[in-house]
Design a protein that fits this description.
The chain is mainly beta. The chain is 3% helix and 35% strand. It contains three helices and 27 strands. The structure holds fe (ii) ion. The site of fe (ii) ion has 5 residues, from loops.
Length: 391
């Protein structure tokens, strides 16, 4: 998605014979998107990836499916994800909070090492690592990550996430299609432009191919969990199916630190989508990072009240002071839905005049279709938030 990348060996031409050290013909697999029109990668397997011998049940022990609330009056909402108890691994610990048909938003606070590889056939995933560091093992290789990284995982990529000490906290966005760099941040040959809020150098790519390690990967059989239409299937392989001789292409996971995001400030306040980082089908993900504030002598740096009548907006508060909000803490998620206006809490607007910088660190997601809360999110909601403007 960022640039062509290659790990290991590939033949000079795709779709031509390519043998391993013992003379065995290797199996080529092209992973393509948008039919055959979109970004793709070409992989060379030591053993064909299609030899699973069983499809098991749809139950994955510990995985928590979501249920949507029966009724959702139109309120501004505050979900206290600080209150979510840690548990499970990168997959079984996932707790879905809000959903529409374009995106699902969840939190995961793993405490256990990963078990099975997971492949999300419903869409690309974007993680934001709130706490912890570690590495992703995927079909495309090993990708280290650290606190405050975004991780983009393409649709149908088998992967699993390891945290150092098995502890971490992640915000999870599951897109219904693809998540990537907005097209207006690219020039006509696909290079990231000088106007974009990051450069090619800011993205970290898989570093080395996976190698089977009996201590890390265990004995056969090897189950892989796949999600499609919000249902899980478990495919069981008789060999470890992630060993490649090489691959090349544009499709693979990447890491990007929010601290490498280059914020923009104007003479007067710019709308929040100036901080757009990634875009998906029906939504954008934006990064609020420490920056100088607006520099007109009478500028009001605090966001103006707004009725963005086409979009729901969520904010995940990571660190620093949020000038426009009261009652919010790190790890809070606010949901400001279309249909009701929202804006800074009383007093914060006037207080911001004359400030020269903000230390806020937060992730925002704006989407067109209204978000529905899950029962789980409703159980950790601050029910007084909607009325907190009038207190
Ligand atoms: Fe807003």
């Amino acid at each position: 998605m960022i640039q062509r990348h290659q790990l290991g060996k590939v033949p000079p031409k795709p779709h031509t014979t390519f043998h391993d050290e013992d003379g065995k013909l290797l199996m080529e697999q092209c992973v393509t998107t948008r039919g055959f029109e979109g970004p793709f990668s070409t992989l060379y397997f030591r053993t064909p990836p299609t030899d699973e011998f069983a499809v098991e049940s749809m139950n994955v022990e510990g995985f928590c499916p979501f249920e949507l609330v029966a009724e959702q009056p139109l309120h501004r909402r505050h979900v206290k994800t600080q209150d979510i108890p840690p548990g499970g691994n990168f997959l079984t610990g996932r707790r879905t909070l809000m959903v529409n048909s374009d995106i699902q938003i969840g939190i995961c606070k793993p405490t256990d090492p990963p078990a099975h590889f997971f492949s999300n056939a419903d869409g690309d995933e974007c993680y934001f690592i709130y706490a912890g560091s570690g590495f992703v093992e995927s079909l495309y290789g090993v990708l280290p990550f650290r606190e405050h990284d975004y991780l983009l995982i393409p649709k149908s990529t088998p992967y699993r996430i390891h945290f150092e000490g098995h502890k971490g906290v992640m915000l999870v966005f599951e897109g219904s299609e693809h998540i990537g760099i907005p097209s207006d941040y690219r020039n006509n040959v696909g290079q990231i432009t000088m106007y974009a809020p990051y450069t090619h150098r800011d993205f970290r790519l898989p570093e080395r191919l996976l190698e089977f390690d009996a201590k890390l990967h265990g004995d056969a059989p090897y189950p892989q969990v796949t999600k499609l239409n919000n249902e899980l299937s478990v495919h069981v392989y008789q060999h470890w199916p992630y060993e490649l001789v090489g691959w090349d292409g544009y499709l693979y996971p990447v890491a990007f630190s929010i601290h490498d995001y280059q914020p923009k400030t104007g003479l007067i306040h710019l709308p929040p989508t100036i901080h757009t980082t990634f875009s998906g089908n029906g939504f954008v993900i934006c990064s609020f990072v420490p920056r100088k504030t607006d520099f007109h002598e009478k500028a009001i740096p605090c966001p103006y009240g707004h009725a963005s009548v086409d979009m729901d907006e969520i904010l995940y508060y990571v660190a620093g002071n949020f000038t426009s909000r009261r009652g919010i803490a790190n790890e809070s998620i606010s949901l400001h839905p279309k249909g009701v206006p929202h804006g800074p809490h009383p007093g914060t607007y006037a207080k911001s005049v004359g400030t020269k910088e903000t230390r806020e660190l937060a992730v925002m997601m704006d989407c067109y279709k209204p978000l529905r809360m899950t029962n789980f999110a409703s159980g950790i909601e601050d029910k007084d938030y909607h009325m907190s403007w009038v207190k």
